[in-house]
Amino acid sequence: LGPILWDFDALTMTFWCLGHRVRWEGIRGASPATPQLQLAATATEAEHPLLDHLLQQHGDLFDEPQGLPPARVYDHRIHILPGSASVVV
């Protein structure tokens, strides 16, 4: 994508794709404890058909999770020394 401009106060993300400037905007009104950012391209479907096609093709990525992910061949693991105290941050 190249350079991406994030504005967390305005809830926007701006970048260039195929020579066109794309700006995504979040939805205002979500509380800080439970942010609910819904990305919406401000361009029309005619301007960015590839983006609309990708969002439709991979729409299941934006669905709410329905439980834990399946077991993988390489699950994440944090190696700690036996008897170590937990870190309080």
What's the SSE blueprint?
Elements: E1 4-7, E2 12-17, E3 20-25, E4 40-41, H1 49-57
Antiparallel strand pairs: 1-2, 2-3, 3-4
Overall description:
The protein has 89 residues and is α+β, with helices and mostly antiparallel strands. The chain has a domain at 4-55. It contains 1 helix and 4 strands, in the order ββββα. A 4-stranded antiparallel β-sheet has the order 1-2-3-4, with no helix packed on it. A hairpin with a 4-residue loop joins strand 1 and strand 2 (12-17). The chain is elongated, with a radius of gyration of 19 Å.
Number of helices: 1
- Arithmetic mean pLDDT: 77
Q: Could you list the spans in which at least 5 consecutive residues all have pLDDT below 50?
A: 33-37
Secondary-structure class: alpha+beta
In short, what is this structure?
By secondary structure, the chain is α+β, with helices and mostly antiparallel strands. It is built from one helix and four strands; from the N terminus they run E-E-E-E-H.
Question: Main traits of this protein?
Answer:
single chain, 89 residues, elongated
